[in-house]
Amino acid sequence: MSKVKMISPAVPNVPWQDRKDGKTTGCPDAPIWRYNENPIIGRNPVKGVARIFNSAVIPYEGEFIGVFRGEQTNGIPYIYLGHSKDAIHWDFNANKIDFVDEEGKPFMPVYAYDPRLVKVEDTYYIIWCQDFFGASIGMAKTTDFKTFTRIENPFLPFNRNAVLFPRKINGNFMMLSRPSDSGHTPFGDIFVSESPDLVYWGKHRHVMGKGNEWWESLKIGGGAAPIETSEGWLLFYHGVSGTCNGYVYSIGGAILDIDNPSIVKYRCENFLLTPEEWYEERGFVPNVCFPCATIHDSESGKIAIYYGAADSYVGLAFTELDEIVDYIKSNSKVSASDTEIGIR
Ligand code: BMA
């Protein structure tokens, strides 16, 4: 097996559980397995919040911090801050995050969902989906998790599923996103855009389209922030198939070129994780595994994947860098639109 290097800080307290009896529980042969006490966040986790799911977490000051999609009891989603010592048991703030504008005045989105949390240099960025006269992407920055300052909305509507890369590439911030329509979009490819200043975005490139395989044949969307490795950017994303009983969301894996991430080097033809457990198959929206974050340790290669389950819970799954990279490479099937530079 190859020895792949993860280029990111060591996180010795990465949450972890060895696979049970050497078995995995993802795609029958994918090296990915669920935490056996899933879901890690259950129903009614905070007063006034019915469900937390599709949420992102990150190491912070020796412990962990996260931004959580909280579906309020009035049906409107907002982002809640949570703290944890072990990244498994979470304490949530009672109130949603108060966003401010550059002058420090209150500036709340109408709603906010599917947050991602990414550190670039010394700043933490939250990226989410919100109303901008139609669904689009909102962004805020913080350095202390006390003040959350909104920055320019990067894209025109309609767009969902945006996530920043954890470092600049060739001097620019880079963001994956999924342009869409106003509804439960029955299509969607992943694009990458770049910006020198997080105000002006351009050089848009197509990264990858919906897959040829059934499980991702309707649409795909960027998931967790890409992990930098010696093989390229390791991306856990979601792929959707349309069945006669609604959409099914599975987790897929791909590896993007390190200097030019619009080029897909490897793309796993099999899903890595698909709804199988009760908390993935049964809930507010059944059959959803929706990855939004990883915590990963460059020393051991351990990767913990956080995913929303059935729009009702947060699930945790584990994999290991060498094994997952090997699995993606040995089951890779890339199309011409994956490997091209992505501009027409
Ligand atoms: C997508 C988003 C996600 C959600 C998924 C399944 O369009 O709204 O937040 O998890 O649908 O309902």
List keywords for this structure.
22 strands, globular, 344 residues, 5% helix, binds beta-D-mannopyranose, 5-stranded antiparallel beta sheet, 3 helices, mainly beta
SSE diagram, text form:
Elements: E1 32-34, E2 49-60, E3 63-72, E4 77-84, E5 91-92, E6 99-100, E7 112-120, E8 123-131, E9 135-142, E10 148-151, E11 159-164, E12 173-179, E13 190-195, E14 202-208, E15 219-222, E16 227-229, E17 232-243, E18 246-256, E19 264-267, H1 278-281, E20 289-296, E21 302-309, E22 313-320, H2 321-330, H3 336-339
Bound molecules: beta-D-mannopyranose.
Beta-D-mannopyranose binds near residues 54, 249, 290 and 308.
Please outline the major beta sheet: 5 strands, mixed
Strand count: 22
User: What is the residue-averaged pLDDT?
Assistant: 96
Q: What is the overall silhouette?
A: globular
Separate helix tally: 3
Low-confidence stretches: none
The Cα radius of gyration reads 18 Å
Topology as a string of helices (H) and strands (E): EEEEEEEEEEEEEEEEEEEHEEEHH
Helix proportion of residues, in percent? Answer: under 10%
Structural class: mainly beta
Biggest β-sheet: strands ordered side by side in the sheet: 6-10-9-8-7
Determine the strand fraction and express it as a percent band: 35-45%
Intertermini distance: 38 Å
The unique ligands bound to this protein are: beta-D-mannopyranose
